[in-house]
Design goal:
With about 450 residues, the chain is of the alpha+beta class. The chain has 13 helices and 23 strands. Helices cover about 35% and strands about 15% of the residues. A hairpin with a 7-residue loop joins strand 13 and strand 14. This is Restriction endonuclease subunit S.
């Protein structure tokens, strides 16, 4: 849909704004409202939830309601405490944002749904009557706060710096029209984004279901079934075997985890796979941490040859991959186990089996440890594995590969659609609040 432009424009004198409608004002933010920093919030005053005044910390910005309002506080204070802390109680519709650290660079703007206090990592903008807060909530994210921030390891801004920043200000009726237009149009876009996100989740569920069904029930829906003898596994095809993993590994090998104490990271040395690599599936040699050859030599059973299976047993429990051949000579961390399949099961089939909901449930039942979630090597060895004949394993892996490629292609399309919709959303907001499109007539028709 194309939108009309205003009949006449002028140079705003502000580089990032460019030309703006001729009848719009260009003003300093300090003329739109008053900026107020928050107050220190000592720990002894935190955690109370029964007092009248909500007290929001900078971390609460990420917990706003769908409409951007901060309403549900994890901390409250009394009037007496507010006076003691010299914490100003900011009115409803105060626009709040982070003023220091990495949170500042996220440029997230929220508004207070009730009179509240904020901590000293935040700043509030109490808007004057010549401006609609909803309009500012669309406009302010266009500002590049990193350009205003004080240089240094921890970026920060103060009231004076942001007050002197110039923005565009339409007449009040147009602010209302633009806000209503954007609220309506962005809600439509957000719903389309939500649909694509639901599709991605559905594809993820279908992916898991296809793997689970194929490697625990087989590809033939008419095959006779038998009890597996394992509660969490249920029935399996009658001609399949069900064996503990320890009976499926190659002779003269063991299921072993890797290096317990790899020492400080080295620029050169023996690369080793960690739990973070297992979660991401990234095994580029340049990205792997390295340990000394001396340390690695103490763990020969977890030295990789390529083609075997590695399994996350700590943190990334259940993540499994076939080892790329280029990792031959690398080793593993304490949180990863090496498994060399024997003649009865292929690496590709075993990785698929590890990806089933049934096996995930087995790991869940077997987790141990308070500091780290992990499963023991003994638990891994006793895992019951469905073992189809060789030809069925090959067919199953091939079927899964085809289906997953189809699901992945659809997920990529959905993600691209989300990106395009988000780009459209950003462009629409920018065009409307800077006057590059005239939405007055559209807003009037919508209100009629």
């Amino acid at each position: 849909m194309s939108f009309p432009r205003y009949p006449e424009y002028k140079d705003s004198g502000v580089e990032w704004l460019g030309e703006v409608p001729a009848h719009w004002d260009v003003v300093k933010l300090g003329l739109i409202g008053v900026f107020k920093g928050g107050a220190g919030f000592p720990e002894e005053h935190q955690g109370q939830t029964t007092f009248d005044i909500p007290f929001f910390k900078v971390g609460d910005i990420g917990q706003a309601d769908v409409d951007g309002a901060l309403r549900n506080a994890n901390h409250t204070i009394s009037q007496d405490t507010a006076r003691l802390l010299r914490a100003r109680v900011l009115p409803v519709w105060t626009i709040v944002f982070a003023k220091v650290g990495a949170a500042l660079l996220l440029q997230r703007y929220r508004w207070l749904g009730q009179p509240s206090c904020i901590d000293n990592n935040m700043m509030g903008l109490i808007v004057n009557r010549n401006c609609v807060p909803q309009f500012l909530l669309h406009l302010l994210p266009l500002l590049d706060l990193s350009m205003l921030a004080n240089p240094g390891a921890v970026p920060s801004i103060n009231e004076e710096q942001i007050s002197n920043h110039r923005v565009v200000l339409p007449p009040l009726p147009e602010q209302v029209a633009i806000s209503n237009f954007l609220d309506r149009e962005t809600a439509k876009i957000d719903e389309l984004v939500a649909e694509q996100q639901r599709l991605i989740e559905l594809l993820k569920e279908k992916r898991e279901a296809v793997i689970s069904l194929a490697v625990t029930k087989g590809l033939n829906p008419n095959a006779p079934m038998k009890p597996s003898g394992v509660e969490w596994l249920g029935e399996v095809p009658a001609h399949w075997a069900v064996l503990p993993l320890k009976r499926l590994i190659a002779d003269d090998t063991s299921i072993s985890y890797g290096i317990v104490q790899p020492g400080e990271p080295l620029a050169t040395g023996v690369p080793f796979v960690q739990t973070t690599n297992m979660s991401s599936g990234t095994f580029d040699l340049d990205s792997l941490q390295r340990t000394s050859a001396e340390i690695a030599s103490a763990y020969p059973r977890s030295a990789l040859t390529g083609g075997e299976v590695i399994l996350g047993i700590r943190a990334s429990i259940g993540a499994a991959h076939v080892v790329p051949m280029e990792l031959a000579g690398a080793n593993l961390s304490r949180g990863v186990a090496r498994i060399v399949p024997g003649c009865r099961v292929t690496s590709q089939y075993l990785v698929a089996y590890f990806g089933t909901a049934a096996v995930a449930w087995y790991w869940e039942l077997s987790k141990q440890g308070s500091t780290f979630n992990e499963v023991s090597i003994a638990t891994v060895r006793e895992l019951a594995v469905c073992v189809p004949p060789d030809d069925e394993q090959v067919a199953t892996v091939g079927y899964i590969d085809i289906k997953l490629k189809q699901f992945d292609a659809l997920a990529v399309e959905a993600q691209r659609a989300i990106e395009l919709l988000q780009e459209r959303r950003t462009a629409l907001i920018s065009a409307a609040v800077t006057g590059q499109i005239d939405v007055r007539a559209i807003a009037d028709r919508a209100a009629a």
